[in-house]
Amino acid sequence: MPDPQNEFSIPVDVTNPGQFYACCGLLELATATDADASGWFDVDRFTIRAKHGPKEQIANWRIEVDMQRQMVMRLSRHRNSQSRLKRIAKIEKAAEKMIKCRKGELEKANKAISQAPRLHERASLNLLKKTALEPLEAVERPAAVWLRNGEQALRADWWRHGPSGEVKTWAGGQVTIGAVEAMHKAAVALLGEKEPFDEAAAVAAKPFYFDCRSGGDAVDQGFSFDAMKNVTVLAYPVVEFLAFIGLNRFRPGGHERRVKRYATWSQPLPATLASAAAAGLLPAFIQQAYRFRLHARDASFRYKSFGRSEPVNLQENQP
Fold first, then answer.
1. 77-83 contacts: CB < 8 A, separation 24 or more?
2. What is the pLDDT of residue 305?
3. What is the pLDDT of residues 103-124, one digit of tens each?
4. Is the Cβ–Cβ distance between 25 and 210 less than 8 Å?
5. The pTM is what?
């Protein structure tokens, strides 16, 4: 007999794109642990029908970075013979151990490096060792961010693909994994509030600027946040974290580079159908369509932020 589902409702400002995609992220997390989960909008509230409430859906996940895959891909470029394949297989096995190693295992890592028969293999292993001995927050631009909840796993890499990549708001040395971890930690602490989307908190990481209430930051003022230590920024962590997850499936519509669209839906839909409705592909389910502008936070449009959205006619809602 399937577990009973419950309904949970959360206040939302649908003209704030960050809050809209945060609702989508909440539905995405619910779907990962409950295949029958569904969600819908009702004026100024988002309701989700699932086994677990919002706090459990977020708190039970842990954040990981897909760093081992990145390092192994570098090694794989040199595969062109059976003998080398065998050597690389041994290196990959050593890499798995080095990803987990700490200072106490440095001697083993050095031994594996010294035994590597080729210069490029030793160089790659040195890079692996360095990665393993540094905090994950120091790794720039990971291939993907993984969320794990027991046997369930979600891979987030939307910023690397197609239209979703256009709404990536960061660039250069900004560290995605550190921001995700910081927003996740702060979000868990705020989910007990009645209106978690409106709760601001000081976070020790740059926000993603999905929430349209976020303003200018260190980048706009001409110095780098990443070079500074023990600096906090006021952000809306529940919105930032959930929107980061929501954008993985719920892709913004619109052909223009700086203007994007989305739509709310008024009937209970699973994530698979809801993502299509959000992109304006299911007119029968659409409650209201919106468009928002991506604002530049630097002269070259590398750093961006989501602007507040405005309603548009359903006829104008072309993906």
1. 78/118, 78/120, 78/121
2. 93
3. 445 555 566 656 666 655 555 5
4. no
5. 0.73
Check: CB of residue 245 under 8 Å from CB of residue 29: yes
pLDDT at 3: 55
Q: 3-state SS of 104-136?
A: HHHHHHHHHHHHCCCHHHHHHHHHHHHHHCCCH
What distance lies between CA 79 and its chain's CA centroid?
Answer: 32
What are the φ and ψ backbone dihedral angles of 63, each rounded to 5 degrees? -100, 135
Q: How far apart are CA 256 and CA 312, in angstroms?
A: 15
**Where are the chain's structural domains?**
6-63+145-316, 67-138
Structure tokens at 285: 């389910």
Q: What is the CA 244 to chain-centroid distance, rounded?
A: 4
Gap between the Cα atoms of 93 and 91, Å rounded? 5
Q: What is the pLDDT of residues 13-72, one digit of tens each?
A: 999 999 999 999 999 999 998 989 999 999 899 999 998 887 777 888 888 765 555 555
Phi and psi angles of residue 161, each rounded to the nearest 5 degrees, phi first: -130, 130
Helix (H) or strand (E) holding 203: strand 201-203
Tally Cβ neighbours within 10 Å of residue 101: 18
Tell me which residue of 254, 37, 257 sits closest to 166, measured CA to CA: 257
State the chain's mean pLDDT as an integer.
Answer: 77
- Sign of the four-CA dihedral 116, 117, 119, 121: negative
